[in-house]
Amino acid sequence: MMFIDGGLSLLDGGLLLWTPGEHPMEKVLLKAMARQLELPIDEPFCQWTNRQLHTLFQGSGDALIPVFRSDLSDSQDSTARWFEFRFEGIIPTLEHFSSFKHEIRYRLQEYLADVPCRMCAGAKINPQAAHMRWFGQRLGELMLMPLDELLPWIRAIDLSKHEVQVGGELLREIIQRLEFLVDVGLDYLTLGRTANTLSGGEAQRIRLASQLGTGLSGVLYVLDEPTIGLHPRDNDKLIRAMHNLRDLGNTLLVVEHDRDVIRSSDAIRDFGPGAGPQGGRIVAQGSLEEIQNNPDSVTGPYLKGTKSIQIDNTRKPIIDPTTSKEKTNCKWLTIRRASHNTLKMIDVDFPLEHMIAVTGPSGSGKSSLVQGILYPALARKYHRSNLIVGSHGGIEGENYLNKIMQVDQSPLSNSPASTPATYTGVFDLIRQFYAQLPMSDVFHASYFSFNTGLGRCEACEGVGKRCIEMHFLPDVWIECEVCQGKRFKERVLAIKFQGHNINDVLESTTAEALELFKDQTKIARMLKMMCDVGLSYVKLGQSAPTLSGGEAQRVKLAAELVRPTTGKTLFVLDEPTTGLHFDDINKLMNVLNRLVDQGNTVVIIEHNLEVIRNVDWVIDLGPEAGHAGGQVVFAGPPSELIRYARSANPVAPRPIARRSNGGKRMVVHETHAEFEREN
User: Fold this and answer.
1) Span 495-500, mean pLDDT?
2) For 639-664, what is the mean pLDDT?
3) For residues 670 and 237, what is the distance between their CA atoms, to the nearest angstrom?
């Protein structure tokens, strides 16, 4: 059960949702509950019976639990009844409070998981409807079929003349819509897949497929990064689908960084030349050839091939322990018998102190391996996390690490008071610096914080803006009329360094702040790190919710790079290149390379071929998605992956040895063909 740790007792914190505290009354109630309901609260949960577990989670019903005076004192009079209470159970109590408290609902998210309904076994229909069969198949069974199986099955249906009159048109519509889903690269999905389990790219492609089925014309479609989560081999399917929409008489406006999509466009608008204040202009526009030959375009050289993503990687080559019987030259982290979701009981080796890319088609098991097993298992070990770990047989080599960190594109915070300066910690140093200025003899560092009440503007609580609730409309933020958006009181703003007060620093970009504090070693070091990761244009005081996913990701990396490191940290990144330009990817890869040079390990789930080319080790899962995936097709350095691609027959690809699963052989994966095309 996901709520409990079988090796611990209730008193020792085995119940992840609730650990009894030290309050005397809580102990009294717990003692009385354990006595009346016969719950062994001091024994590990693995020794509890099913009845005892059911009582703990579902409660004692209408039965009242007596509490005696002796439960609180050392009195021997156990007959002196104090009061009675009813134990509702863990789950009913949480359901009750979460219905009207957002904080509780948010905290419960990590403990919740969907399980099939016992009555319908996940079919979502009543028993009468579930017994109906269509050409031998129940509706629930069809909903669980992958589309690449369902579509051929429906195509093979042979209707009689009468059946064609009744449902022929309906059957054609079903086939057509399934074909649209397959055409956009979603052949591994099932129709019964819930929407909240879809990635952003999958949801976007489903909406695209639904539009293909409408047959509308004269519509303007806006697509934001439609290739997110899409393997390069599926790009052609997506591009064909978009061209079909165009050919129906529609217009598609696509925000994209993928090379294939840009090259297939009829017209291109290239913004720049830089980011933030340095951007906002169309520096080049026209056809692909015009963009490639425009000297003002930052994107053109990457499209033309005169510029590419390259990092300075001088690390020693890795000796694979499964192919070399001699001693290896690095430490290894190994996941044994991984079987979470689509994974097929595989063993996977990760070379530590290197950069590793986990590749494969969408739905092949990459996230199940890294996000479902590797990250939660190590987070529980090193950081006592409550994350649920996917099914596997164990992890070897954990002793070589002491920390795991997930660097994703989620917002730094939902609070407008959170900024890049506060997240990285550079603002603490800046506040201390201002407190040491001659004019600050009566002010200490707290006066220069917009999160405390000493020096901040109380009207806006240091945000510089005030939120106006519009009830049935989105909230509106307006500039604070007291401080005019300057966050602080006038006496604090009067303290300046080289003509800049504390608010001026927050309103300056990272590059401007670096120039201002270039002689302050600690401050300059942090600011330079932020510039190195490509954030020179970001304002130090920019509100965290307004940062893009890529910007938030780079702020997290900068914050980690400036911290003292033991060189035993494992960094996990899931498609870090999402939303990043070629230039930004170059900067990101150099930052990740710097982390590895410090002795850390970086694991990246990625489809970008240029990123894959620049890592130390590739673990390719497949060979297909869904039920046809979940196996290690290839494990080795990118150079070997390229060599296999070039030696493979394009008609009948040469099989290659799987590195991590008993030496079995499997057909070469499409990633190899993509490497052949790109290299």
Assistant:
1) 90
2) 43
3) 14
Least confident window among 126-140, 220-234, 649-663: 649-663
| Measured torsion, CA atoms of residues 660, 663, 668, 672, in degrees rounded to the nearest 10 | 40
b/e for 663-672, b at 16 or more Cβ within 10 A?
A: eeebebbbbb
Q: φ, ψ for residue 622 (rounded to 5)?
A: 165, -145
Nearest to 175 by CA among 144, 214, 213: 213
Question: What is residue 462's predicted lDDT score, i.e. its pLDDT?
Answer: 84
Q: Do 333 and 571 contact (CB within 8 A), yes or no?
A: no
What is residue 233's predicted lDDT score, i.e. its pLDDT? 77
Residues making up the chain, counted from first to last: 679
Cβ atoms of residues 135 and 179 within 8 Å: no
Instruction: Give 504's contacts (C-beta < 8 A, 6+ positions apart).
Output: 496
Half-sphere exposure of 677 (CA within 13 A, CB side): 10
pLDDT, residue 254, reads 92
Q: What's the rounded Cα separation, in Å, for the pair 73 and 238? A: 72
CB–CB of 283/268 below 8 Å? no
442 φ, ψ (degrees, to nearest 5) = -105, -5
Q: Which of 151, 201, 155 is nearest to 179 (CA)?
A: 151
Question: What pLDDT does residue 449 have?
Answer: 86
Contact 330, 596 (CB under 8 A): no
Q: Which DSSP category does 401 fall into?
A: -
**Rounded distance, CA 227 to CA 422, Å?**
33
- Per-residue pLDDT at 329: 65
What residues contact 490, with CB distance under 8 A and at least 6 apart? none
CA angle 210, 216, 222 (to 5 degrees): 65
In what helix (H) or strand (E) does residue 562 lie, and over which residues does it extend? none
What is the signed CA dihedral for 152, 156, 162, 166, rounded to 10 degrees? 0
**How many whole angstroms from its chain centre is CA 526?**
26
Strands 346-351 and 332-338: antiparallel
* CA-to-CA dists, residue 654 to 491, 661, 673, angstroms: 75, 18, 11
Q: Is the pLDDT of residue 506 over 50?
A: yes
* Cα–Cα dist 521/209, whole Å: 55
What 3-state DSSP class applies to 101? coil
* pLDDT tens per residue across span 248-260: 899 999 998 888 8
Amino acid at site 109:
Q
Question: For a pLDDT cut of 90, what percent of the chain falls above it?
Answer: 15
List the helix and strand counts (H, then E) for the chain: 26, 21
Rounded to the nearest angstrom, the gap between the alpha carbon of residue 27 and the centroid of all alpha carbons in its chain is: 40
CB atoms within 10 A of CB 500: 17
pLDDT at 672 over 50: no
Structure tokens at 128: 């009468």
**Extended beta strands in 176-257, E state:** 220-224, 251-255
**To the nearest 10°, the Cα dihedral for 51, 56, 59, 63?**
70
Q: In angstroms, rounded to a whole number, what is the distance separating the alpha carbons of residues 567 and 400?
A: 10
